[in-house]
Every structure is written in C-alpha cells, then in structure tokens.
Amino acid sequence: MEKFFGGVQVNAKDIFRKLKGMAWDLFHLRCIEMHMAERNCEPSFTYLHSFCSADRGILDIVKLNPIIRMAFYNGNSIVLHEKNIFNTCTHIDVSGILAPYADKRLEMCMKTDYRELSKRFEKDVLSIMNAEN
Questions:
Q1: Residues 106, 72: one domain?
Q2: Which domain of life is it from (predicted)?
Q3: Which of 131, 123, 121 is nearest to 23 (CA)?
Q4: Is 10 found in the same domain as 34?
Q5: Helices 56-64 and 15-39: angle between axes, nearest 10 degrees
Q6: Among 9, 54, 55, 68, which residue has the least CB neighbours within 10 Å?
Q7: Using one digit for the tens of pLDDT, what is the confidence trace for 75-127?
C-alpha cells in the first residue's frame, strides 16, 4: 500500500493531481465490475474484462482483496471479494445493523453533490497543508 499512497504527503508537489490519479485508478477498478454486469445480459456470451497495469501500487491494492466469485443476473453483478464486512466482523450482526438504513443510504447517494463534496475536501486538504507550513 505504501507504493500506492506513498506519493501523497502533506507537502507533496501536485498533491491534487496525484489524488485525482489515485481516485481514477480506484474508480476504474470498480467500473470494470459494473461494465461486466452491463455486458453480460445475454446468456450466449460471457465477456470478461481485465485490468493491466505496470503500477506496482495499484497492483498491491488489487491483491489486498481479490475477487473470488462473480455472478451476473438481469444486468446486475454480484461480486464476492475474499474479504467483506460479513466475514471480517463475525462478532456482530452486520445485516441487522445495515438493513434498517438501506433506503436512507441510497437516498443520500442519490442526492449528494459529489463535485461540491470534492471541492470541499480539496479546500480542507489545502487548509491542513497551510497550517503545517
């Protein structure tokens, strides 16, 4: 993980360019799953997308929690990673905690202005960097 996150230091030059690049890499990985779900609606063909990178940092991130199984049904994908909240937090009833708030989480995802949220985070990072100088 150090290879992936190592370039992001408080006084790093072009910190926002680096953060946006990292965000793009992580977003792209997530989109591969969604695009596979969209393309695998026909039962006669199965499309398997792949990801190739010489960036050791992103490869380390991918290896942290590999996909062990995928299923496609009615344009949706079901992705099972090696680690998830259910097999990591076995001492608590995760489903019981999350289920009552599912609608609220979906509502918040739909109404959040992610561009504005990103701008606020950039402003916060800049203020932290300026405070340490």
A1: no
A2: Bacteria
A3: 121
A4: yes
A5: 50
A6: 54
A7: 777 888 899 999 999 999 999 999 999 999 999 999 999 999 989 988 998 88
